Amino acid sequence: MTFAGRFAVAVLALAVAAMIFWPGRDDPPPRSESTGVALSQQGTQPDGAAREAHGRPVADAALRRLFDYHLAALGEKSAAAIRQSLAAALPAGLDARARGAVLDLFDRYRAYKQAVAARTPGAEESMKARLDAMRALRGRFFREEEARGLFGDSDRFDDFSLGLLAIRADPSLSAQEKTRRAGELEAALPAAMQEARREAVAHTALADQEAALLSQGGGDDDLYRLRSRVAGQAAAGRLAEMDRRQTDWQNRIAAYRAERERLAGNARLSPAERETALADYALAHFDSHERRRLAAY
C-alpha cells in the first residue's frame, strides 16, 4: 500500500477528531475459530514494519502502522492473542532484546489508545483543544523521540486539516481568498500527502455517486460497474464481498429477532423452554464469536 493510500481515508477534515477520539468499530466481523485470524484480515498482509537500529526498535510511522494493523482485530481477537500475533510477525532478524522492546512499545501504544478513548471531552471543546489534549497524553507513555517518530506524520496532517477548517470558517475571507490560502496550505504538504488528498477526494466522490445510483433504483450490477469504472475491478470485487457479508449478517439478525418474537408469543412454552429454544436457534445459525454479540440485539 502506498503512503498516499494509507492516508487517503484520514484526509477528511471534518472526521479528524472523531476518528482520533472515538476509535472502535460497531459490529466487528467474526473471527475464524480454527486459525485465530480475524476474517476481516484474511488474505491481507500486515501493513507497516518493525526495524531496529543499534539494537533498538525504530519508532516510526511504519511501526505504528504495524501496531494498528494488529489492533484492528480487537473485538475479533483478545488483546493477548493480538500481542502473540504481533510477536510472531516480527522479523526473524530482530534479536531478543529488540523484540522485547517492540512489544514493550506496543503495550504502551495500546495503553495510550485506551487512555485517548477513555477521555471525555467537554461539550464546548474545540477540535484543536482535543488534539492538544491527546498530544499531551503521550508524555505519559512515550519518550519525546518515540512520540515524534510514531506520530509526526499524522500530527502534520492533523494540523493541516485544522488549518483548512479555520480557513473555510473564516467569515472575513472571500471565496477566492479561501481557495488561494487552502491551495498554499496544501502545497506545503509533502508530495505523498498531497496525493493522499487527491485519493480521498476520489473516495468521497465514489461514495456520493453510489448514493445517487442507489437512490435512483440502481442494483448490484450497476454498483459493480460504477465501482469498477472508478476504482478498478479488484476494488469493486472487495467492496461487493463486504456488501454481501454485511447483508448476510443483517438478514441473520433479522431472522434471529423474528424467531425470538415467535417464541415469546408461544404461550405453550415456559420461559426456560423459550430460552433453550432460542439458544438452539443461535447455535444452529451463528458461530461462537457471533453468539457473544447477540446480546446487543
Give the SSE layout:
Blueprint (H helix, E strand, L loop, with lengths): L2 H6 L7 H6 L30 E2 L2 E2 L3 H11 L7 H11 L6 H23 L8 H11 L6 H26 L5 H13 L3 H25 L4 H12 L1 H32 L6 H15 L2 H6 L4
Antiparallel strand pairs: 1-2
Helix pairs in contact: 3-4, 3-7, 7-8, 9-10, 10-11, 11-12
Describe the structure.
By secondary structure, the protein is mainly α. It has helices at residues 3-8, 16-21, 61-71, 79-89, 96-118, 127-137, 144-169, 175-187, 191-215, 220-231, 233-264, 271-285, 288-293, and strands at 52-53, 56-57. Strands 1-2 form a two-stranded antiparallel sheet. Residues 6-35 have low confidence and may be disordered. It is globular. It folds into two domains: 7-189, no CATH class; 231-297.
Features of this protein?
297 residues, mainly alpha, 2 domains, globular, 66% helix, two-stranded antiparallel ribbon
Average predicted confidence as pLDDT: 82
In total, the number of strands is 2
Order of helices and strands: HHEEHHHHHHHHHHH
Structural class call reads: mainly alpha
Largest sheet: 2 strands, antiparallel
